[in-house]
Write a structure and sequence with these properties.
elongated; alpha/beta; 434 Repressor (Amino-terminal Domain); 13% strand; Endonuclease, Chain A
């Protein structure tokens, strides 16, 4: 799933519909005859160019023999894709897509080698990162993006808790993002986050040398009712990978050379004292 303006909701749903049709051995033409729909209509469902009405999706799943919990999960996905609620704080399709996926996830794992993950950022740190990403961006856009980012944080301690396992490069602690005062406040906030039962923080020290994270940052989103997705952010847009296995493998290798949680907290505390 590459970058683009087509909503990820539709692409993800379309991929699942296509898989279910193919599992029955039906061609698009054969399936369209059973459902009394044009093949072009079914094709647009499968590409995500058109979202089927929930009643249409239910009928398609009946034709494809999808039952029980699997059908219920796909119906929830279909309803979310069909409704496509948009927050006034969201400023781009990419932000909306990721926020939606994170709301569906029960766990997020990843490696951040330059900047801290959005879930752990303070407002001042986030402003500095957003401005550095695009110095020409206006204040209003920064504040809207910031509001969307800050709205994600409560899940780390809420009822519908989101688990987070973040492996942070040591450089994320040493860079004085926004200046020493801003960074010191950020590191103190990081210590507070590390005390949450839902958060596991591991520091990847410079002393680890070459490691599997040299290819850059990535995130793995884990779902209870769907397959995991891997995510990377590029200048050209966000990219999602439905095969998360290579990222799982890299995550395990990186974690094996990272500091323990206790050692990581000690390094963050030391970096806080040094940030003057």
């Amino acid at each position: 799933m590459g970058p683009g303006e087509t909503t990820l909701h539709g692409r993800l749903l379309g991929a699942r519909i296509r898989e279910k049709r193919q599992a029955t051995g039906l061609t698009l033409v054969e399936a369209s005859k059973r459902m009394k729909r044009r093949p072009s209509s079914l094709s647009r469902w499968e590409t995500g160019d058109r979202i089927p009405h929930p009643a249409e999706l239910l009928y398609a799943l009946e034709v494809y023999g999808v039952r029980g919990g699997e059908r219920d999960a796909l119906m929830r996905l279909g309803e979310e894709a069909y409704e496509r609620p948009e927050s006034p704080d969201v400023v781009s399709v990419a932000v909306a897509d990721y926020d939606w996926l994170e709301r569906r996830a029960y766990r997020v794992e990843g490696v951040w080698d330059v900047a801290l993950p959005g879930l752990l950022q303070t407002p001042d740190y986030a402003r500095a990162v957003l401005k550095a990403w695009d110095p020409a961006v206006g204040k209003e856009r920064i504040e809207r993006t910031l509001a969307a980012r800050m709205a994600r944080r409560p899940r780390l301690a809420g009822d519908d808790v989101l688990e987070l396992c973040a492996i942070l490069g040591e450089g994320t602690l040493r860079a004085a993002v926004g200046g020493p005062e801003v960074m010191r406040a950020q590191l103190l906030h990081l210590l507070d986050c590390a005390a949450l039962p839902s958060v596991e923080l591991r520091i990847l020290p410079f002393a680890a040398g070459a490691h599997a994270g040299f290819a850059g940052r990535f995130t793995i989103l884990r779902f209870r009712d769907d397959r995991d997705l891997a995510h990377i952010t590029t200048r050209g847009g966000d990219i999602y990978f439905e095969d998360a296995v290579p990222f799982d493998q890299a995550q395990r290798r990186i974690k094996a050379v990272a500091l323990s949680q206790k050692e990581s907290v000690a390094m963050i505390a030391a970096a806080t004292k040094e940030m003057t």
